[in-house]
């Protein structure tokens, strides 16, 4: 990556990201955790005010996250409105009002197989049914997820629940303990599921063909735009497809070196209000 004169961020040489005038970027897609929310799940006043300023000049804000809608809306309530939500890593897409655009969930058979395999490992696992997360056994990672999600999950026996159609399934543990689970899932399901890390200790599964990129495409099309008009920000593996599909994909300074090497540009870290710094300079907004 090369430093752009006079700017704090590092601009890449990715052709499609450099071929458009900045005025043509009418959409800003934002991951939450590690991108605009810091380790304490806080949206800084600087980022908040910058995103509000972007909306005032006509830019549309899309939240693209692994979180479900109620959690995502709560985290960005200070923005006083956004234009769309891509939730559950692309499994659920909504208008800014919360009205559904599309849902892509697991069927009953896949849902059952998923939790039966999960029972063979000691790691925490849970699944989403709509906006509620459910688990069968509790450990320290369960308690951590309560804090992260902002709401308590529901403990239940999946066998006794009846018809299950999970939005997504998740495992949480030390990274080295999650890799054997990932390998088992690949062996069993192959290309019929999408497996991504949203953090080194969080392994998430949705159905094949679902990602933040596919969800963002549907959301943007509802708003009358195309992916080439999008600036997307993210920090983790589950953001990669979205960053590569967008007109300009921007990795945060706290992202992995592997992700930074693939994208159009790199912003300062989330703790440095990187999204705000990048957008202020790109659109000549007041700091």
Could you characterize what this model shows?
The protein is an alpha/beta fold and 287 residues long. It has 2 domains: 2-103 and 211-282, 3-Layer(aba) Sandwich (Rossmann fold); 108-207, Hypothetical Protein, Haloacid Dehalogenase-like Hydrolase, Chain: A, domain 2. 31% of the residues lie in helices and 23% in strands. It contains 10 helices and 16 strands. Strands 1-2-16-15-14-3-4-5-6-7 form a 10-stranded mixed sheet. The chain has a 6-stranded mixed sheet with strand order 10-9-8-11-13-12, with helices on both faces. Strand 5 (84-87) and strand 6 form a beta hairpin. Helix 2 (45-56) packs parallel to helix 10. It is globular and about 55 Å long. The protein starts with a strand and ends in a 5-residue tail after the last helix. Mean pLDDT is 91; it is low at 1-20.
SSE topology:
Blueprint: E1 2-3, E2 10-11, H1 15-18, E3 27-30, H2 45-56, E4 60-64, H3 69-75, E5 84-87, E6 92-95, E7 100-103, H4 108-118, E8 124-129, E9 132-135, H5 140-149, E10 154-155, E11 169-172, H6 175-189, E12 193-199, E13 202-207, H7 212-222, E14 230-234, H8 240-245, E15 248-251, H9 257-260, E16 265-266, H10 274-282
Parallel strand pairs: 3-4, 3-14, 4-5, 9-10, 14-15, 15-16
Antiparallel strand pairs: 1-2, 2-16, 5-6, 6-7, 8-9, 8-11, 11-13, 12-13
Helix pairs in contact: 2-10
């Amino acid at each position: 990556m090369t430093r752009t004169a006079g700017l704090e961020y590092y601009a890449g040489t990715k052709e499609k990201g450099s071929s458009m005038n900045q005025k043509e970027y009418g959409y800003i897609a934002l991951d939450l955790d590690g991108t605009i929310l810091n380790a304490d799940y806080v949206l800084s006043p600087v980022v908040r005010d910058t995103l509000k300023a972007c909306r005032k000049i006509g830019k549309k804000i899309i939240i693209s996250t692994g979180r479900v809608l109620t959690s995502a809306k709560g985290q960005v309530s200070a923005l006083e409105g956004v234009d769309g939500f891509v939730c559950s890593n692309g499994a659920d897409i909504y208008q800014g009002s919360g009205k559904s655009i599309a849902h892509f969930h697991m069927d009953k058979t896949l849902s059952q197989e998923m939790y039966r395999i999960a029972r063979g490992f000691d790691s925490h696992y849970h699944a989403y049914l709509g906006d509620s997360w459910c688990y069968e056994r509790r450990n320290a990672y369960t308690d951590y997820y309560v804090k992260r999600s902002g709401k308590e999950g529901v403990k239940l026996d999946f066998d006794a629940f009846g018809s299950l159609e999970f939005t997504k399934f998740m495992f949480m543990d030390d990274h080295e303990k999650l890799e054997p689970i990932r390998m088992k899932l690949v062996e069993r399901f192959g290309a019929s599921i999408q497996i991504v890390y949203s953090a080194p200790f969080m392994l998430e599964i949705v159905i094949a063909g679902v990602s933040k990129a596919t969800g963002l495409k549907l959301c943007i099309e509802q708003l009358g735009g195309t992916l080439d008009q999008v600036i997307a920000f993210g920090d983790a593996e589950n953001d990669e497809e979205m960053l590569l599909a967008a007109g300009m994909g921007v990795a945060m300074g706290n992202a992995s070196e592997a992700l930074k090497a693939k994208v159009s540009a790199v912003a300062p870290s989330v703790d440095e209000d990187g999204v705000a710094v990048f957008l202020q300079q790109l659109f000549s907004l007041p700091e």
